[in-house]
């Protein structure tokens, strides 16, 4: 019971903190109400024949985001490279974002190496999406 009380109090505290965020922090002025990604077959050059071969069964896209979310109105943006391995079972349950963490670790290369292993662990009903932060 003590654990549940502690957990509930943390959730309440975070909810109060989130509600006090300024509106411009919640949604950047450059964001759109509806945004779509244009996924296509990957055609990246990894300088590694195995990764170049594996990418043929993955989709890639580019996501334009503000360079600085605290100053998103200045119009400066960067492009993030995204990669996706599609769900293998129906019905699709949406997407899971994979971030391998750690400095210098490529999310794109990590998903190329681990994506087909991760699909069955997640039940095969989720697309798995990863990104490169640099």
TrEMBL record:
- Domain of life where this protein originates: Eukaryota
Q: Which UniProt keywords apply?
A: Signal
Q: Would the keyword Signal be found if you checked this record's keyword annotation?
A: yes
Q: Where is the signal peptide?
A: 1-18
- What name appears for this protein in its UniProt entry? AB hydrolase-1 domain-containing protein
